[in-house]
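explain this:

___
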Amino acid sequence: MRLTDAGSKVHERVRSIFEQLENLEAFIMNIGENKDGILRLGCSETANIYVIPMLIKAFKSIYPGIKLVVDRGPSKDMLERLLNNKNELVIAQYDPNDKRMKMRYMGRKDIVLVAAKNSRLSPKDIISAHELNEIPLIVPTNGSASREIIISRLKEVGVTPKIVMESSSIPFIKDFTCADEGVTFFCRDVVLKELAAGLLKEVRVLDFTPTIEYGVAYLKRSNLSQAALTFLRMIKEFVEKGEFEKSDAGLNVKSP
């Protein structure tokens, strides 16, 4: 049986398409096996604790050959490094109004007040926002998104916090809060282990429920490496499954 001219053209076209698909599959496989591939990823200090571990674990299970270079610091600094082409992707506070970059929404986290388990500075488990005028507060340094949110929200309710210490180090802030040198605000995920271990306690602040939204930023999608595009697709899958909204995200998460 012989194909007509039209049939021959269709056959050739289909064969070409299948060859392209095979080449694409091989190309995708090579991404994971390419030991020279590098993805430079920036993240805020908070995201480094409850978002980055789950993403890296899932990504490396699929693409073990790609080297991840993780840069961390205050959100403001990380976004500046993105603009200066130091990183391809940055996970930081979500700000869709920043026209210098593109940003995809990832999720939202509660910010809670914590104190030492048997704190003398904040012995009560429930306080009013105005009581924070008198309680020593430990905060992140300038440039931290969570700091900006907390200070702004406190100002809205007429509170001038009594800041006694600043640090860019989350472990440092945790240690001094556990030592009852002050109270502090953290995303709940960041202190789950300390709360469970009885080192810290959550203090409810009446009519004060701050949250932080975060996302992944990049400059131009057309300029992203295949590794970065793959990372973005993985983030999209996590968002669709609601993984980032879980309270224990980052502690025990399987690959998508």
